[in-house]
Amino acid sequence: MYGPPGCAKTSLAKAAAGSAGIAFISLSPAEVFASSYVGDAEGIIRRAFSLARSVAPCILFFDEIDAILGTAGGGGSINHRMGRESSSEARVLSTFLNEMDGVDSSPLDGVLCLGATNRPTVLDAALLRPGRFDKVIYVPPPDRDARRSLFSLQLAKAKCCCESIDVDYLASDVVSGKLTGAEIIGACQEALMLAMREVLENDTGGTAYAAAPLLTKQHLDQTLRGLKPLLTDSMLAEYQMFEQRHKM
Fold it and tell me: pTM of the entire structure?
């Protein structure tokens, strides 16, 4: 799975395991490269696959897989990578590919490997060939319906809206068209903090902590206006080009 940061790739992987009722094992770059000793990173990869097989059926998820198995050159070949014999990244990649190919066990072992990345173009080409990560799924920014659902959920969680807030207005392309899911959640939380600060600043009787802050459209407007979207047109175009090259 690839797409902009903050668009719920990790959450989708967890939801897939929960929906299927199977085990979920996640591995991040910090965990793989936690040790500076030679060979430890490869050992962590092997143990992750071994653990996944022992609890199969299972989803083995690699978060930010570009930082674990990517190549600085972008889409380079395994031969190019293995030319650097002392490179720990090359050894980790080789170990990972061996495990995925079922060198140490049957390929029909009940383990589904999922990976997530914000930078698909830096992945080694060997990872994307048939039989490995052969299903490439684009996770785009939320569309209008998804943004509406996110705003509705966040406002419901706040439980302090004493006036009607037009969720359709908030979800419109003009207001939140380029925001990721994480940015929408962050904006709602920041708006609530603005409302809470207003309550504290206007408190004269020492009862601020007993009163729920009044979250209004103005708080949300102020927060959204001051938010600089992470996504740019060029970033979206790059993701869409990659999607065209790897259509399922």
Answer: 0.81
Question: Do 23 and 59 contact (CB within 8 A), yes or no?
Answer: yes
Q: Are 17 and 23 in contact (CB under 8 A)?
A: yes
Q: Is residue 237 part of a domain?
A: no
45, 86, 113, 221 from 140: Cα distances, Å: 29, 37, 21, 24
- Domain for residue 1, yes or no? no
Domain containing 212 equals: 144-230
CATH number at residue 152: 1.10.8.60
Taking a C-beta distance cutoff of 8 angstroms, is the pair 77, 125 a contact?
A: yes
Q: What is the pLDDT of residues 130-170, one digit of tens each?
A: 888 888 999 999 999 999 999 999 888 776 554 578 899 99
CA–CA dist 61, 111 (Å, integer): 10
Among 129, 137, 53, 61, residue whose Cα is nearest residue 97: 129
H or E segment to which residue 58 belongs: strand 58-62
Pick from 106, 87, 4: which is nearest to 41 by CA? Answer: 87
Tens digits of residue pLDDT in 59-117:
999 999 999 986 644 444 444 444 444 477 888 999 999 988 875 455 567 889 999 99
Instruction: Tell me which amino acid residue 30 is.
Output: A
| Edge-first strand listing for the sheet containing 23-27 | 23-27, 58-62, 111-115
Residues 169, 190: Cα–Cα separation, whole Å: 18
Which CATH number goes with the domain that contains 107?
Answer: 3.40.50.300
Residues paired with residue 24 on neighbouring β-strands, in sequence order: 59
**Shared-domain flag, residues 95 and 163:** no
